[in-house]
Amino acid sequence: MLFGGGKMAFQDESGSVTGRSKKAISYQINRRKVVTRKLSVLLLSLLFFTSLPLSAEANESVKEAVIPFELSDYLILVKCRINDSKEFYNFVLDTGGIMAIDKKLADDLKLKRLGPQAKIDTLRLGEFAVEKVFAITSFDLTIFKASYGINLSGIIGSNLLDRFIVTIDYEKRQLVLSTDMESLAAAKKSNPDGYLLKFSKHPVNTAPMIKGKLNGKIEVEAMIDTGQPYSLVLPLKELERAGVLQQKNTRKAKGVIIQWPGTTPAGNVLARLNSFETDGLKLNRVMTVFAELPPLLSVPLLGGDFLSRYRLTMDWLHEEILLVPKAGYKSLDHSFSTGLQLKENAEKQLVVHGLWERSPADRAGIQPGDWIREFKSKKVTPELHRELWLLLNDSGIQSVELLIETKKGPRKILLQKEKLI
């Protein structure tokens, strides 16, 4: 379930292949009355969109396709072709999201419209041709170009993936789509060290939901969400139950670290839970971010730092997921960080949108509202936003040198990354 680095990334969302849907509405933080009205519209829109199709048909002539992807930090980027276009477009694979396409691109390609959706006659992912794809056109994807330098054309969500057996291999950078119902059975036999889990489908977006326990006692149902970076995100309402506020290492955000559609930036919290366990799989000392989540999707989210430790195979027909540990593979790790969260402003400057208290950025005196002039002696331009974003989030890079414009003038700062918690 994608977020825009602290800014609303989306305006509308629609639901599952069977027609369930929702509408997430962007609003300004200080307009509380408007927020209330719009959240009401959100719920009403879910009922309205249930009559709309959101379907696709796979090309049965190809039983399996191995599709390379680019891993840009935690974002799984898949090159797709649309109808007869020879151009390739970046779609992000987001199991916590739904099928979507950029509105301008849909207009440029003259795709047929049905309300807020566009019909893609053929979506080509590698050798796989998926026919009759309906995609929401109301997502605002420009934030990814502005802040991260990524030209994002759409989202591949669970309501498209759920007609396949889907394998995601972070190490090999491969997505495997299969219509062979025997493939998961074969994978189980050849990977006895894997964890085979049952899941249910979320009623809004058909995302896989697995049952588990937090700290050995709090029962939850968590979404498999490749669209967010952290091992675990919990709704803010779980803060007290999780018992982390009394822990010495728990940290609060200054400014905004992470924010989802339909929510206010109500104070993110970073902590470690003692454990998360599910059907034989147990994680200890789990880095967890607490945030306000959209009303219709306010559930625990298992994201990139956790998922990248495994090769994932998901079978929506039988509601099973196989997690095979990847020995020796260095998985994503967003706990090793400077603690900074950046966002582009109207002047195309990368501004400090938030930071974790007691992080390297906080100890260096950086404040929300400061902006980045240079990194590695290079002037920050929109063309370099992606390079800086990847530099800040690459756990293999130990330090980052920045020239920062503060209220007291420019400062050159060398930030040493460290385990935040």
Helix content: 10-25%
* Backbone structural class: alpha+beta
Number of strands: 31
- Biggest β-sheet, characterized? 9 strands, mixed
On the 0 to 100 scale, the average pLDDT is: 85
The total count of helices amounts to: 9
Low-confidence stretches: 5-54
Which fold does the CATH topology of the largest domain refer to?
Cathepsin D, subunit A, domain 1
Number of domains: 3
Which helices and strands appear, and what pairs or packs with what?
Layout (H helix, E strand, L loop, with lengths): L31 H18 L7 E2 L5 E5 L1 E3 L2 E8 L6 E6 L5 E2 L1 H6 L3 E3 L2 E9 L2 E9 L5 H7 L5 E4 H4 L3 E5 L4 E5 L4 H8 L4 E4 L1 E2 L6 E7 L3 E7 L7 E4 L3 H4 L8 E5 L13 E10 L2 E11 L9 E2 L1 H4 L2 E6 L4 E6 L10 E2 L2 E5 L5 E7 L3 H4 L7 E5 L2 E2 L5 H9 L5 E8 L2 E8 L1 E2 L2
Helix pairs in contact: 3-9
Written description of the protein model:
There is one protein chain. The chain has 421 residues and is an alpha+beta fold. It folds into three domains: 32-167, Cathepsin D, subunit A, domain 1; 198-309, Acid Proteases (Cathepsin D, subunit A, domain 1, Beta Barrel), CATH 2.40.70.10; 336-419, Pdz3 Domain (Roll), CATH 2.30.42.10. The chain is built from nine helices and 31 strands. The strands form four sheets. Strands 1, 3, 4, 5, 6, 7, 8, 9 and 10 form a nine-stranded mixed β-sheet that branches. The protein is globular and about 60 Å long. The model is unreliable at 5-54 (pLDDT under 50).
